[in-house]
Predict the structure.
Amino acid sequence: MRFKALDGWRGLAALLVAVYHLQFLNHFHELSFIRNSFLFVDFFFVLSGFVISYAYLDRLHSGLEIRQFIWRRIGRLWPLHVFVLLLFLGLEMTKLFIMSSGSDWSNANAPFTNEYSIPSFFSNFFLVQSLGLHDSFTWNYPSWSISVEFYTYLVFVLMTLLFKTNYLAKLALIIISLIIIYLFPHNFANATYNYGIFRCIAGFFAGVLTFNVYNYFKHKNFCIVYPTLIELSIVTLVFTFIALLANTKYSLLSPVLFALMIFIFANEKGIISRLLKTSFIQKLGKYSYSIYMMHAFILLLMSRSIFILEEKTNFKMYIPKDSPENPIDVPIYFIYNKYFMDLLTLIYLVILIYTASFTYRYIEKKGVALFKYLEHTHTITPKKLKLNE
């Protein structure tokens, strides 16, 4: 069974995170909802806990089943992660070649320095980059969440073995994680490369508890009354929360809010659910992991291209971060007028979705198939097969 409405939300959330990182001064850039869309990463964490619980909560009993679970999660996350990491590596190699030949690389740092250092490459390769090893983002910065999510899977295995039906233990884990985030200075729920593991644990296990609640009511033939009104209400609440409270201490409540949203849309009864199940939105959901993982690389290529074009034409194309015209604290791109920037934003999204469709087909799916092949040819012996008959 697939939760198609939730798949649709996953795709939309991935696009919103991609737009959040887009430093274009267009007509909607300064909207507080867009500027705070980083919080949709917490939606991913809660949704992951929900769907992983649906798929595995009753299946993790033996050592073989646990190994299969971990192996399949590596196969789901790691191939695309490494592919994008190698794209960034290729860009740094290109920078090294160009700069070693005496040419300029458009105001960029020296190759393999700062966030693109060689040690951080290996920490990224082994998915440990967001476990407190670095004091900033490194390489493909969205992958910080993939790093912490993988290790949260291991916590999930441990909690399932020890406290499968002990909901208070899982609730305590959520509360402890949120307290840790609250006590340390890192912008509340926007913890990433430093305390992001606790942010992920809180969201993921909120999703686990949400599935427990959903599963309980499903067996009671529970039905949401006035589903369209309820869906409209929760969407309005989520959008308002993100717009107004994402950078406050109340952002720590986002796992609770997203858990409620996921519980409602898992029932798929209202008009918004029907819209989310349309073909285009479903494709976005299918490509969501690729959209999320590829957007930083595409943005880097676009920024390099703009810098090069600016140098060649002497036409100013960005506003420095310390300019009074700049509403944020990083350089922001602006060419001609906001309508032109709207067009560039649309082009960016089209390129991103098309690229994601490619990496989904040829990297994600092929990677999952490869790991399944390796699982069946190297990790399952006849004796193990007999135990599972």
User: Anything to note?
Assistant: DSSP finds 15 helices and two strands in the chain. The beta strands are 318-319, 332-333.
